[in-house]
Amino acid sequence: RPGVLWFRRDLRLHDHPALVAAAAGGPVLPLFVLDPLLWGPSGDVRRAWLVRSLEHLDASLGGRLVVRHGDPVEVVPRVAAELEAAAVHVTADAGVYGRHRDAAVEAALAAAPGAVPFVRSSTPYAVAPGTLKNGSGSPFQVFSPFQRAWLREGWPAPAPRPRTRWVESVASEGLPPAPDLGGVELPEPGERAALRRWEAFREELLPAYAGARDRPDKPGTSALSVHLKYGEVHPRTLLAGLADVPGEGAERFRSELCWRDFYADVLWNRPDSAWHPLKPEAEVPSDTGHLADERYAAWAEGRTGFPIVDAGMRQLLREGWVHNRVRMVVASFLVKDLHLPWQRGARHFLHHLRDGDPASNNQGWQWVAGTGTDAAPYFRVFNPVTQGKEHDPQGDYVRRYVPELRGVAGKAVHEPWLLPGGVPEGYPERIVDHAAERQEALARYARLRG
Ligand code: FAD
User: Fold this and answer.
1) Is the CB–ligand 1 distance for residue 365 below 6 Å?
2) 261 has binding-site annotation
3) What's this protein's family per the entry (predicted)?
4) Can you tell me the ipTM of this complex?
5) pLDDT tens digits, one per residue of 282-330
6) How far is the CA of 260 from the centre of ligand 1 (A)?
7) What 8-state DSSP symbol labels residue 166?
8) Which structural domains are found in the chain, ordered by start?
């Protein structure tokens, strides 16, 4: 009897243990369910990426991908019944919503005539979240010991692509059209593009990665986060490709992949930490009301008057991606200069980021806010001007995203208020005084600590 392979965050055919398990059992129906609960809150860039990635997957399946729309708890058992499937195979989802949804689908399948098994193989991570424990049997709360245990645990070699007989006879509702992005070019989605990107990064950028990864003005990082998010490539494949590469670049890159696993592990152990502070005692009171809303809007639209913040926020709206250094700067600005809750920023990021992932994103926000694991101490307040001058020394990054400042040469672009003619026309004045807000943030922190 045929089996169903339900694709979710694993939109590839190589190194795919759930496909291996499904193909071993007989013919395979490749299924994708467009879930309104995930599709609804996604911004246009995220939607465009998903649709195009699925188009690539469909092409590599010879046009056989079956797409159904609706609640997976109803749709998956219905497809399994239509096919009289022997099993439904998935890559286990470690996220909060995904675990909950999968438990409900599993229960619905078990209750259906024939009690169809729901088979989980592997996860989107090198080491399955929830696996590693410290010496006293508890989950890790700090990165470095987690990384040591992660390296000791290791991971299997990439699984070869199995010979697969695909089922052809089930109707598909098709994909929605990809939203029009108004001329913004996204990189190519899909498995083939992900593998090409990885090879190019390994050849050209990996040797210098450790030093170059902090420069938003230049291509120094892999840009693989979105491919990893949709599972167009599995971290196992990347880690296998790093195994014989010596040097600091490879070591640092391996460590970044470990951060991704770590944050998934933290969320797996503490599902509440998606939206609640891991350390509530460290959560500094934030502002509400009309002024807070105005400031939030200025931040979200990239008109704070601080060039690196505005460049980052405009890049987010335009491209659905922001360099890691700039994510930290804009997040710090929201929490410590504007005194707004990290959850507001995390929600905005998740809506727009094409790599938007509740584990990496929300734990990243908690890190900046000082409430998470290994948290940056709250008293560390990023200075948007010195961060700009240090990490975008010629100002090229700012000029790329802030057209009003394109006429300003060099690093002067980071302090337009010092220009002889004042702030160029059309660019906003600073909405706050950084030095004063830094003092305010520190005072709130001091009060919290009594
Ligand atoms: P590279 O430097 O090439 O790193 C390689 C891979 O390692 C990345 O693709 C990613 O999978 C992983 N990685 C790197 N840094 C981190 C990190 N700090 N935490 C977890 N994994 C990491 N990453 C996401 O994938 N999705 C998010 O929604 C997300 N939101 C973030 C929000 C904030 C406030 C912050 C500070 C960071 C966030 N990150 C997120 C982490 C990081 O910014 C991105 O993974 C990185 O910028 C992606 O670019 P890259 O692929 O070129 O990274």
Assistant:
1) yes
2) yes
3) Belongs to the DNA photolyase family.
4) 0.99
5) 999 999 999 999 999 999 999 999 999 999 999 999 999 999 999 999 9
6) 7
7) B
8) 3-122 (3.40.50.620), 124-157+191-269 (1.25.40.80), 280-448 (1.10.579.10)
